[in-house]
Amino acid sequence: MKKVGIVMGSDSDLPIIQKAVKVLKDLQIPYEVHVYSAHRTPEEAKAFSAGAESSGFGVIIAAAGMAAHLAGAVAANTTLPVIGIPCKSSNLEGLDALLSTVQMPSGIPVATVAIDGGANAAFLAAQILALSDAELSERLKSRRKADAQAVLTKDAGIMERL
Ligand code: RP5
Predict the structure, then answer these.
(1) 34 DSSP β-pair partners
(2) What residue's CA is closest to ligand 1, atom 14?
(3) What pLDDT was estimated at residue 90?
(4) Residue nearest to atom 2 of ligand 1 (CA)
(5) Does residue 66 sit in helix, strand or coil?
(6) What pTM did the predictor assign?
(7) Is residue 41 in contact with ligand 1, taking CB distance under 6 Å?
(8) Residues near 87 by Cβ (< 8 Å), separated by ≥ 6?
(9) Is the dihedral of CA 125, 53, 107, 98 positive or negative?
(10) 7, 87, 89, 93, best to mutate for ligand 1 pocket (most atoms within 8 Å of CB)
(11) Which of 37, 41, 39, 85 has the alpha carbon at shortest distance from 59?
């Protein structure tokens, strides 16, 4: 199976990445995590992105806050699908990162999830890889069923909590 590459702009973004990693582990998807900054280490971010396809990655998740250009910078250097996570790391509550991540020019898309949406970034990466992996597709369907059942269990018990 192809790997998911995860890059974050700073290790202060780690709590968001941990949410993504948990989902990838649950779904038995191989991954690799790096700290590369579009601004502080642009050459390393570029080298990783440009070599990602030949290194066995199938999709890249890029998380950054504030003037969050990392996902776009990664997308500029690969045709692999790139999923951007805008992180809430300033007193603008992540709106700065959301707009910086989502407003990409035509031809260089970044599939942007919610502010701090680490889990959904991993689920979306899994769905992309599942297009060419029937076993992963089955694991995703099982996960959906389990998540639905968890809601129904909460429904059954909600009156007792009131
Ligand atoms: C961004 O600036 C990072 O992605 C992080 O969200 C934010 C703050 O970084 P640090 O100053 O904590 O390293 O580039």
Answers:
(1) 7
(2) 9
(3) 83
(4) 65
(5) coil
(6) 0.97
(7) no
(8) 8, 9, 13, 16, 63, 64, 65, 68, 94, 97, 115, 116
(9) positive
(10) 89
(11) 85
